[in-house]
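Lab manual, section 2.4: Encoding a predicted structure.

Procedure: take the sequence of the chain (348 residues), apply the prediction step described in section 2.3, and record the output as structure tokens. A sample record is shown.
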Amino acid sequence: MEFTAELIAGYLGGEVAGDPKATVSTFAKIEEAKPGALAFLANPKYEHHLYTTQATVVIVNKSFTPSAPVAATMIRVEDAYSCFAKLLELYAANKPQKKGISPLAAIHETAEVGEDAYVGEYAVIGEGVRTGKNCKIYPQVYLGDRVVLGDGVTLYPGVKIYEECRIGDRVTIHAGSVIGADGFGFAPDEKGEYHKIPQIGNVRIEDDVEIGANTCIDRATMGSTVVRRGVKLDNLIQVGHNVTIGENTVAASQVGIAGSSKVGAGCMMGGQVGIAGHLTIGDGVKLASKSGISNSVPDGETYMGSPAMPGIKYHRSYAVFRNLPDLSAQVRRLEKELARLKEQAAER
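Recorded output:
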């Protein structure tokens, strides 16, 4: 389908600078766009692409002032990034939707599959499972006994959800993720041999959560491991047993949260953050990439480093330890000078 710049601007509440009748039929990055494509510019470091792009229409911020002529038609909006995302959402929502239940799926006779569902080949839906409306269960998904899915859930190929877990509305779980595997619970005996502690809890994921590929969320020893509403988890994340992650928290790839820790609402965790067990991370906390968290963190703090420390303290420390080679050489020179002075004093 083709859309004019005028129509797009009307939808976004923007202003057209250029040809209002310019038409686009696809999306592209500004540096790769061809004629007929719609692109956007939000980050100033990509501005130079605006003057060479072949895109027909480019969405820009209202505050942006070009420093050279722009061949493309521009649509000026308050926030170019969020407006472009809004258009992508509209595009995705209008793509053809998968429907129907494959005869190659294995669905237990006691399971209840909601209306307008898609169930792909070799999906397995266990005893007593209940799924809501408009769920999409891609090939080779496994739903253990008595799993409950809300409305509009999407489970991509190879997702495994163990028994008794609860998934809210509009949750998306990407390929290969495992929800509800046993938590890492073992107790040593007097001989030093480890014995498994049964994990009899479950995982509860609330509404509007998105979980990346190959992420693992362990079931609770007792009670529930809980992922609150609006949480977004990247690929390759490990969430231990009895962890709670607060609303609208986001975590980048390879974050690991050990058992029984509580992460607050509105937190941001960079890649490879590690959180030790039984800690409390307050609301609105920011943890920089590769931070090693060994103590609880108060609300609103920014921590970085391993072991992690408050951001201001880390930057002050970094100003010192990045110069350690020079400081070490200086200390050795001073030691030699001190030794020489002592020799001179002894000779007098």
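Check your result against the sample. The mean pLDDT is 95.
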